[in-house]
Each structure stands twice: as C-alpha cells, then as structure tokens.
Amino acid sequence: MVNKSELKKMIQDAEMVLVGIGEELESGFSILESSQIYEDLKRKLKAEGLAEENYEWVYPCLLQQAEKESEEARLLSDFYLELKDMLGDKNYFIISMNMDSMLEETGFSVERYVQPFGNYELLQCDRACTKELKDAGEMKKNVLQSIRNGTELLASLKKSYCLHCGSEMVFNNVNAGNYLEEGYLENWKRYTKWIEGTMNRKVCILELGVMLNYPSMIRWPFEKLGYLNQKASFVRMNSVIPQLTGELAGKGISVRTSSINFFLER
Predict the structure, then answer these.
(1) Is the domain of 255 the same as that of 194?
(2) Where are the strands (E) in the chain, listed by range?
(3) β-strand pairing of 134-135 with 118-125
(4) Average of per-residue pLDDT across 214-223
(5) What is the pLDDT of residue 58?
(6) Are 100 and 175 found together in one domain?
(7) Which of 150, 180, 210 represents a domain boundary (last residue)?
(8) Selected residue with higher pLDDT from 96 and 67
C-alpha cells in the first residue's frame, strides 16, 4: 500500500513517468445522461415533436459539453488536475484506454498522451473508402447551437457525409465499423519512441483503473517493462483487480481503491 504523499515522492524521484489510464476512469455516456445538455436535448425534441431514437446520432456530439456539466465529470476533471499537478514538469507519457476528452480539457499536452481507441474529435468515412479524417468540431458546434438556440430547429440538423462515396461520416474510434488507426498513429510513434528511451532509466510506472478487457494494450506491456527494468517502480491502482503478477512481487505496489478516491483523498 502507498499513500498520496509517498506516491508523489516516487514520481519526484523518477527520471521518467509512464501512466496508463483505464476504464475505471472513463467519461462515458452515463455522464451524458446526468448532464444539463441531455435534458435540454430531450426538451427540444419534445417541443418539436421529434422521436429521440431518430436523434441518437447526436449523443457523441454532446459528450464534451456533458463533461463540463455533470457532477461525475467534475470529479474526473479534479482527478486529472491532481494527476497533472503531481506529474509537474516530469518527463511523462500517458496512454489512455478511454475515448473522452478529459486529458485535453484539463490541459495535458497532446504530444504527451495517446488514445489508441480513438476519440470524438475526428470523423472518418463509415466505409473507410479514404483515409482522410475530418475535424468534428463544426458538427458538434452545430448540434449544440441547435439545442440551445431557441430559433434553430433540431429537425434542420444534417449528418455529415463522405465527399468521396456519400457514406455517413462517423467518429474516428473503435466504435466505427471500419476504424481508421491513422487518427492516433502519430502519437503512437511518439509513445513507442518514448518507451525506447526508458531503457536503464529510473521509471515510475502508474497503472490507474485498467481492467482486463484489452490486457495487451496496457497491463501486459506495463508489467513487462516493470519486470525488465531493474530501476523501475510499479504501482497498480484498481478497485476491482489490483493483484500483481509473481514477477513484480517485491517491486510492485498494489492499491485496492479507485484512482479518484486516492488522488482526491475522498
């Protein structure tokens, strides 16, 4: 077990800090359902006599706004700000399993993290007829304006379509039927190069809330790095499965709690 001040010292003593963020810290659609923007959407749909199931495609457009409005999201934001403060000016890199925009919203440099499963910032052709990606900002802005501007109608909203084949444009993440990895590959190259630089360096490895759905993304690589690097320290924080492998016995630290509770000392 380790407390917050001890973890902070581990980070300060390290030359490099690797952070893995998992599903326990995901800002998902549950946040949307508890936000004011979702209530505004339902009210506008009712006022225009529109069926909600026909407008489910706008939900992802509202997630970033919901992250600013719900209590659950505020706790997540506070967690990320605490993490950012703890990392300070350290040489760090973050790999996140999640598709939300919390890292961006809380001021982390885009060159310091990677989201291999994509996010809701880019659009791609549903058929992947082209590898071209489009910024989703304009579409999200139009959706928000239609909901909160009393003079604009939701019924006038139009989906975005591929200029090449006419297929619907979808968000560039793993929920797309033909996910284009080009959206994160540049940052993935930065990440792998950063990992190469950890050899024989004093590295603090923090695995926060990572489950077992995709162990090859964070769990296994982190364990391997922690085992092979004799100068590494390893902390696994998880409210459900904090157990360590035998190879990390004596080196790794297991903390059975949620990262939010730990960092915010709740």
Answers:
(1) yes
(2) 16-21, 91-96, 113-114, 118-125, 134-135, 169-173, 203-208, 233-237, 252-255
(3) antiparallel
(4) 97
(5) 94
(6) no
(7) 180
(8) 96
pLDDT band at 251 (very low <50, low <70, confident <90, very high): confident
Reported residue count of the chain is 266
Q: What whole-number distance in Å separates Cα of residue 28 and Cα of residue 102?
A: 11
Tell me how far the alpha carbon of residue 163 is from its chain's centroid.
Answer: 29
Q: Which of 114, 101, 115, 121 is nearest to 190 (CA)?
A: 114
Pair (35, 167) in one structural domain: yes
Final residue of a structural domain among 155, 180, 205? 180
pLDDT on residue 89: 97
Distance CA 237, CA 177 (A): 32
CA distance 32 to 72: 10
Name the phi and psi angles at 116, rounded to 5: -60, -25
By residue range, what is the domain housing residue 42?
Answer: 28-66+118-180
